[in-house]
Write a structure and sequence with these properties.
CATH superfamily of the largest domain in chain B: MetI-like
CATH architecture of the largest domain in chain A: 3-Layer(aba) Sandwich
Number of strands of chain B: 6
Radius of gyration of chain A: 22 Å
Distance between the termini of chain B: 33 Å
Number of domains of chain B: 2
Largest interface: A-B, 64 and 54 residues
Helix content of chain A: 25-40%
Number of strands of chain A: 14
Helix content of chain B: 55-70%
Oligomer: heterodimer
Strand order of the largest sheet of chain B: 1-2-3-6
Shape of chain B: flat
CATH superfamily of the largest domain in chain A: Periplasmic binding protein-like II
Number of helices of chain B: 9
Strand content of chain B: 5-15%
CATH architecture of the largest domain in chain B: Orthogonal Bundle
Number of helices of chain A: 14
Structural class of chain B: alpha+beta
CATH topology of the largest domain in chain A: D-Maltodextrin-Binding Protein, domain 2
Distance between the termini of chain A: 48 Å
Radius of gyration of chain B: 25 Å
Order of helices and strands of chain B: HHHHEEEEEEHHHHH
Chain lengths: 352, 317
């Protein structure tokens, strides 16, 4: 049995009822680091670089929480989790927060014993296929072109396709829904490990790989032997708001994680970034004054130091900086993830 | 109090403690699940599953069916690979075991080498190996190998004709005829070749355990080689072979749950997905445990019956 599952079972079997004697915040302060559940390796979201340092926008959120709670963004330990392991890890207390490109749905929010705090990436599910004339081995099969694969330009042409997908995801369900709605059939190949499911797709076991479009872009840029041989189809078949989640029932910790995320978004709106936050802190703008803790007691209300937001922006950066550093190099467009002032959906409630 | 009375009392006390502990754990779990707002109960089994399954055995399934049906499909898939696997591994293992006893030097060494290599490489690694062979080495469906009329080998699997129903390339893949998917093929080959190594040793040990004198006696009675094996050696060897063989059949069945790593939709794979979609891990794990326990106990019961049949008549009475 998977160790995580075993741990979860043991915890739920043996833990005394109502044993939330210690809040997550206290536990984090005591051990001196935030235990953050992240993806095992999705470029731009969470992936260790060549030095073994975790990078990505999901990782930045973990660091923001550490900066807010402990004053030091580096005090994070990462637990790489597969799609199947992630909720159990959070439920069992293995991680303090799950920041792992996880879609917020009502089922998950209400029946898994966890709460989603917000959205750090607005996404949708898409399909990736090999371009016409490219066989799995990469050889052009132009000679056999007549009876070779058709040029696929739309998801509506995928009737009868074999589709590689990871289990335990909303992706798996949307996929079935989409084909049912369009009266098409498909054969799923369901493999848990990202590495293995990608191997299967790149080896030609599947015609299609499906996941959130961010995942497709990331995988195409970072894992495909030849990125330009793969086409992401134009259809976006679902809403996938990706965001961090915490255990149900610890409202203080829920608030801290939520406002750590919003602080990054608000900072971008206020034009505060890691380079200018020190000098901007002395300006007379009342919003900025509140944000940096020069006036008011917003940090205290959260049970944190009043410098919490300054620590986040100084050590991690604002949302836009995180996006530009992690996702832009892979070819991501801000799209829906622009600030609301620029036509996107990123909107932080007022910090006041 | 008599000694027997004391023993009974101790037994009863132990049983009571165990029952109490189990009851406490159950109560505690339900309290904890309720307090952390995690859904519980088995009502989810009758809800729509909503996910597709790559291959089914005998049971028709679509995403509109229930979780219960999805789990049944997974169970049927487990049965299929286990049943075919047990038969093939017995044949292969017995041949290897006999080869190890062969006076032919080359054959004996080859069989010995096979056994040492196969049983010393973890099964999971072997499964990845076979899966990679099939999906990386074989060509796509449009360039499928066609060794026999109507038989196609590609990275989508092995397609073969059924009476009046020949596989045909249409669109993305072959349709019609029979199919062995790469996942099933890799799992079956992996399980069979791995378990056969253990069975070979069991068969060899069983045959070697029959004293030389028995063969000599059979010879002196004028039995030819075939009759020696059939009437003298095998009946005695089987007594030793059957019990460890049972363990190997159980191992093969349980090892089939490694299917999850290469995407064969067996019971564990479907149960994992179910647990993840519903969040009801405890119920899911309980179902997996109950099913494997039933399968294992059934195999054991059958093998025990068979063992009694091949046991020496009149012995132990």
């Amino acid at each position: 049995m998977k160790p995580l599952l075993a741990a979860a079972l043991a915890t739920s079997l043996l833990a005394a009822t109502g044993a939330q004697a210690q809040s997550t915040q206290e536990a984090v302060a005591k051990k001196g680091f935030v235990q953050c559940g992240v993806n095992v390796g999705l470029a731009g979201f969470s992936q260790p670089d060549s030095q073994g340092v975790w990078k990505g926008i999901d990782v930045d959120l973990c660091r923001a929480i550490a900066a807010a709670v402990l004053g030091d963004a580096s005090k994070v330990r990462y637990t790489p989790l597969t799609a199947q392991q992630r909720f159990t890890a959070l439920q069992s207390g293995e991680v303090d927060v799950l920041s792992r490109n996880t879609t917020w749905t009502i089922t998950r929010d209400t029946s898994l014993g966890l709460n989603f705090v917000g959205v750090n990436y607005y996404d949708g599910q898409g399909f990736m296929v090999r371009k016409a004339g490219v066989s799995a081995s990469g050889a052009k099969d132009a000679k056999k072109g007549a009876k070779g694969a058709r040029a696929i330009t739309s998801a509506k042409q995928l009737n009868g396709a074999t589709v590689c997908v990871q289990p335990g995801t909303t992706t798996e369900l949307n996929l079935a829904d989409y084909f049912r709605a369009n009266k098409m059939t498909f054969k799923p190949v369901v493999i848990e490990k990202l590495e293995e499911v990608l191997n299967a797709y790149f080896a030609g076991r599947c015609d299609v790989y499906t996941t959130d479009i961010s995942g497709l872009v990331s995988v195409r840029a970072s894992r495909a032997p030849k990125p330009d041989e793969h086409l992401i189809l134009p259809e976006v078949i679902s809403k996938e708001p990706l965001g961090p989640a915490v255990r149900h029932g610890d409202d203080r910790w829920f608030d801290i994680v939520k406002w750590s995320l919003y602080a990054m978004i608000e900072a971008e709106e206020l034009d505060l970034n890691s380079k200018n936050i020190e000098q901007q802190a002395s300006t007379q703008n009342p919003s900025i004054q509140r944000f940096v803790g020069a006036t008011g007691d917003i940090g205290k209300m959260l049970g944190l130091d009043n410098k919490w937001a300054v620590n986040i922006v100084k050590q991690v950066g604002n949302y836009g900086e995180s996006f530009d550093a992690n996702l832009k190099p892979l070819g991501f467009d801000r799209g829906l993830n622009k600030l609301w002032t620029k036509g996107g959906l990123m909107y932080a409630p007022p910090i006041r | 109090m008599t000694r027997r009375g004391r023993e009974l009392l101790v037994q009863a006390a132990l049983a009571a403690v165990l029952l109490l502990a189990a009851a406490f754990l159950l109560w505690n779990v339900s309290q904890n699940l309720a307090s952390s707002k995690i859904a519980s109960g088995i009502a989810f089994l009758w809800r729509e599953a909503g996910f597709e399954i790559g291959e089914t055995t005998f049971i028709a399934y679509s995403a509109a069916d229930t979780y219960l049906r999805a789990l049944a499909v997974g169970l049927a898939n487990t049965f299929r690979v286990a049943a075919v696997g047990v038969v093939l591994t017995t044949v292969l293992g017995t041949m290897l075991g006999l080869a190890r006893l062969s006076p032919n030097f080359l054959l004996e060494k080859l069989a010995a080498g096979y056994v040492e290599v196969m049983r010393n490489i973890p099964l999971l690694v072997q499964l990845f190996f076979w899966y990679a062979i099939i999906s990386e080495v074989l060509p796509g469906p449009h360039e499928a190998l066609n060794p026999l009329p109507g038989v196609y080998l590609s990275n989508r699997g092995i397609f073969f004709p059924l009476p009046g129903d020949w596989p045909e390339l249409s669109g993305f893949n072959f349709t019609g005829g029979g199919t062995l998917t790469p996942e099933f093929a890799a799992l079956l080959v992996g399980l069979v070749t791995y378990t056969a190594a253990f069975i070979a040793e069991i068969v060899r040990a069983g045959i070697l355990s029959v004293p030389r004198g028995q063969v000599d006696a059979a010879l002196s009675m004028g039995l030819v080689r075939r009759d020696q094996l059939r009437h003298v050696v095998l009946p005695q060897a089987l007594r030793l072979i059957v019990p460890p063989m049972t363990s190997q059949y159980l191992n093969l069945t349980k090892n089939s749950s490694l299917a999850v790593a290469i995407g064969y939709p067996d019971l564990v794979s479907i149960a994992n997905t179910t647990m993840n979609q519903t969040g009801q891990a405890i119920e899911g794990v309980a179902i997996i445990m109950a099913v494997y326990l039933s399968i294992s106990l059934s195999i054991s019961a059958f093998m025990n019956w068979y063992n009694r049949r091949v046991a020496l008549r009149g012995s132990g009475e």
